[in-house]
Automatic annotation (TrEMBL):
This is DNA-repair protein XRCC2. Residues 1-175 form the RecA family profile domain. It holds the Pfam family Rad51. GO terms for cellular component: centrosome; Rad51B-Rad51C-Rad51D-XRCC2 complex; replication fork. It comes from Mytilus galloprovincialis (Mediterranean mussel).
Length: 248
């Protein structure tokens, strides 16, 4: 799945939280996956303190409103211990070039094979080195896309061989513009307005990446926040705050 647009960082923290939290804890239903995640940070924007804050708010919210049959009281120290244990399930890797990203993906194969709890790979963002590769490749499109094609091949191999889920963010470096799009309002509640978001999106990475991606979420922020998904047939409304994503 690919998350695109301006609000990408606000969305992957709740996703990571849902992955590494346990399903149940001390009689409370946290509804987590209790799995491991590899987070590849190419934009150098990942903030561990923000993740901890969202995790704590999620846990405290559950202990206050979703209590099961238990008389056990939960202290702040208990929550701190849980958060520390959950943070052991996330592996953060940083890359400074597309070649380094490619080498990293190859080196991670042994890590994944030795840790069956790892279920998710997240990359923020997959398009971080687009302009650098384009410059280094000169006028040869094949040279520009060489590393990206190999990255897609390795990601496809990891996802298939180890049954992983891949989340990747991508900047909207290019978008389609026309008079119709500019005349549309900010609230994308109607199907016709959703089409504006879809029409604004233009794929700029290599074709192998375009074919590899199964689902895309396109985030768009004007006076009001809106999101378009090309694979869902239903409307899903939510807000994003310090506690993460809150579905209405």
């Amino acid at each position: 799945m690919v998350l695109k647009g301006q609000e990408r960082p606000s969305c992957y923290y709740p996703i990571v939280t849902s992955i590494i939290l346990p399903k149940d804890w001390n009689g409370y239903n946290l509804n987590g996956a209790n799995a491991g995640v590899i987070f590849i940070d190419t934009d150098y924007k990942f903030q561990i303190l923000r993740l901890v804050n969202i995790m704590e708010k999620r846990i405290m919210g559950k202990t206050e409103h979703d209590k099961l049959d238990t008389s056990k009281k939960t202290s702040s120290n208990d929550i701190e211990v849980l958060v520390k244990e959950c943070l052991k399930k996330i592996m953060i890797v940083r890359c400074t070039s597309s070649f380094q990203l490619l080498v990293t993906l190859h080196s991670l194969e042994s890590t994944i094979s030795n840790n069956p709890d790892i279920a998710v790979i997240m990359i923020d963002s997959i398009s971080a080195f687009y302009w650098i590769d384009r410059c280094n490749g000169g006028e040869n499109i094949g040279a520009q896309e060489t590393n990206m094609k190999h990255i897609v091949q390795q990601l496809s191999k990891l996802v298939k061989n180890y049954n992983l889920v891949l989340f990747a963010t991508k900047a909207l470096n290019f978008k389609k513009t026309n008079k119709e799009n500019e005349s549309k309002g900010d609230n994308c509640a109607s199907p016709s307005e959703k089409k504006v978001l879809k029409d604004n999106h233009a794929e700029f990475l290599c074709k192998s990446w375009y074919k590899f991606v199964k689902h895309r979420l396109i985030f768009h922020k004007e006076k009001s926040f809106s999101v378009y998904c090309n694979s869902l047939k239903v409307d899903i409304q939510f807000t994003i705050n310090e506690g993460g994503i809150c579905f209405k």
